[in-house]
Amino acid sequence: MIELPKTTEFNKRIPKQKFYENLSITPALKRQFTENIRLIYWRNKIAVSTMNLLPGKDVTEIEVFLIHLNTPELDEAVLRQIDKEIPYHILFLLEYDNRYQAWIGYKENSAGVNAFNVSKYYHTDWMSEDELSISADGITADDVYENFVRQLAGGALQPDNDDETLQESILRNEKKTQLEKQIAALQAKIRREKQLNKQVQMNAELKKLKAELKNMKNNP
Predict the structure, then answer these.
(1) Which of 9, 17, 43, 54 has a beta carbon 3.0–4.6 Å from 21's, enabling a disulfide?
(2) Is the pTM of this model over 0.70?
(3) For residues 42 and 11, is the Cβ–Cβ distance under 8 A?
């Protein structure tokens, strides 16, 4: 699944109520913690002190959390709540019925000390433990985190060149996704439109959007 040095092993059980007691969260989110989660383990700590890494500029530690589930569904808001309470970057391993998913959020520095915003999550499909393969590659903690995000994105965030940052890859992918949604929505609108002149106008706009998307694919 993910091979890490023994020096990174932490294997500490975290009471799930830690993430919702004394906090103002919705009843629905609390039910996710109480009903959908069975156990949470802090499995590994990836840091300069536990691995042969150089200090990162933005990433100081990467925690690996193993979450055993009672159901195969878990609201993304649960991971967001855990990410909010832990001031480090986190790789989540979800387990249900001996199948696994890996999740990670793109966590950016926010205002304040050890404060982060998670703008988007990336994850794998459900797999057996042997099928789920994640490599902790990199010289710095920043490198390891970036490689985790790119691996879990399943090819969507592969850099266009050696200089493209992870943030640039994410922004480019989000723009591409938005264009695809606009094209699909406009195509549906054209199919419903009865007036020819409006169809012509919308088809012209559709042509522009398709050209922009094609240009992104041809000139990443």
Answers:
(1) 17
(2) yes
(3) yes
